[in-house]
Amino acid sequence: MRRLAVSALLGYVALLVLIVALEDKLIFFPTRGGRVSGPGRDLQLTASDGVRLHARYIEVPGARHTLLFLHGNAGNLAGRSQQLQLLSAAGAHVLAIDYRGYGSSEGRPSEAGVYLDARAAYAWATAQTPAQRVVLLGESLGGGPACELAATHEVGGLILLSTFTSVADMAALQFPWLPVRYLVRTRFDNFARIGKVRAPKLFIHSRSDELVPFAMGARLFDAAPEPKRALWLEQPGHNETFALEAQRVTQALQEFLQSLPSS
């Protein structure tokens, strides 16, 4: 029995060590290569640490705002070509980036690196458009850099789509029998940051989200100061929002952009 107990303990510790060692691979699932199709042009941006990034810009005639789109943890922009077109249909210019390690961007993804990548995109956007007309849209993991930017920089608005409260909360959800909440180095603590965001906010989340529970989106909404609004969906799974609810999401984006101050 003692040997069994020791073996079980060693196995438990080994599993914890493995999870810590593979943390980035359990969070980021980049796809390399690919080309974005449809309207727009490719850009090359450079983060403050010298990493070169691929970005896509869609210019919409007559648009007043720029949507800075920060995608989720899997795939790349090539797989979101149709999604980018839907975003531009909301009536704003669209700037989207592939984080380091994604698509044709250099480097390897990390929390600190993703923040630098988002700031590089923000710098490019604000060189074309006044900061008060740049609206951040964070999808899932992209809500992390979106919240970080909105809490530390001037923006016209913040949109969170299917976003979690923190990586620690997600880790505890995925591994409820392990103390991973206290071991993860990657934080993306959106819950801690959302209260610092004074810009208008729009939250979009499905009650049927099987990866990021709806309760997390609701907690972020409750913790956010006014002004804020929400679009709560019923049907889509985590990766189905644009496929199943394109019209409602586009309308919500249009109404949100139209509600923003004109200055």
How does this model look, in words?
With 263 residues, the chain is of the alpha/beta class. It has 9 helices and 10 strands. The chain has one domain: Rossmann fold (3-Layer(aba) Sandwich). It is 39% helix and 19% strand. The radius of gyration is 19 Å and the shape is globular.
Strand order of the largest sheet: 2-3-6-4-7-8-9-10
Beta-strand portion reads 15-25%
Q: Going by CATH, what is the homologous superfamily?
A: Alpha/Beta hydrolase fold, catalytic domain
- CATH second-level architecture: 3-Layer(aba) Sandwich
- Could you give a short account of the major beta sheet? 8 strands, mixed
Number of domains: 1
**Protein structure class:** alpha/beta
Low-confidence stretches: none
CATH class reads Alpha Beta
Instruction: Please tell me how large the radius of gyration is.
Output: 19 Å
CATH topology assignment: Rossmann fold
Q: What count of helical segments does DSSP give?
A: 9
Q: Considering DSSP H and I runs of 4 or more, what fraction of the residues is helical?
A: 25-40%
Measured distance between first and last alpha carbons? 72 Å
Mean pLDDT: 93
Order of helices and strands: HHEEEEEHEHEHEHHEHEH
Basic shape: globular
Strands, count:
10
